[in-house]
Amino acid sequence: MDRERFWQVVEVARAQAPGPDDAEGVAGLVSAGLAARPAGDIVAAEQTLWDLMADSYTTPLWAAAYLINGGCSDDGFDYFRGWLIAQGREVFERAVADPDALADLPVVRACAADGGFLEGEEILGVAWNAHLAATGERIPQGACTIRYPAPAPAWDFDDAGEMARRLPRLAGLFLE
């Protein structure tokens, strides 16, 4: 399954979800949508998912997640990127290109107002769950390759001045 088809499955799930910002609900619908496809497509979707995770493994996006969620561990960054995938292609691509653009999203603004956090751990298992539902078996070992790029050097995410310089709109929401 190529990226275009993967994003189509995500968009269909978002349209069917009672709350499209709810990554868990979207994840369940993505899994169901994938489970209706041939096993080979599901395995290919697993690779596409992890390619997207690798594409979004950037220091500026990690800094954005750190601001939005009030801190962000390695696992927390994975879950944040899962949430980002659940938001659909347009939001994902825009955020990867310009993490500060996340400040435009109502759900991010709501987090700033109420102290919530954004994560979508369930998205990381959509193909796994779909394959299990469709075949009764796990995705074969070695069927997916995960290659994270070396991220740009990080800066001190606790340095409010540096965060404001690099992510001014998000810093305005979360640091003031």
Report on the structure:
This protein has ten helices and no strands. The chain is globular. It has helices at residues 3-16, 23-35, 39-55, 59-69, 74-86, 89-97, 106-114, 126-135, 160-166, 168-174. It has 176 residues and is mainly alpha-helical. The model has no long low-confidence stretch (mean pLDDT 95). Helix 2 packs parallel to helix 8 and helix 9 packs across helix 10 (168-174).
Biggest β-sheet description: none
What would the principal axes of the Cα set say about the shape?
Answer: globular
Helix/sheet category:
mainly alpha
Question: How many beta strands in the DSSP annotation?
Answer: 0
How widely separated are the two ends?
43 Å
What is the element layout, followed by pairings?
Blueprint: H1 3-16, H2 23-35, H3 39-55, H4 59-69, H5 74-86, H6 89-97, H7 106-114, H8 126-135, H9 160-166, H10 168-174
Helix pairs in contact: 1-2, 2-5, 2-8, 3-8, 9-10
Keywords:
globular
Outline of the structure:
The chain has 10 helices and no strands. It is mainly α and 176 residues long. Helix 2 crosses helix 5 (74-86), helix 2 (23-35) runs parallel beside helix 8 (126-135) and helix 3 (39-55) packs antiparallel against helix 8.
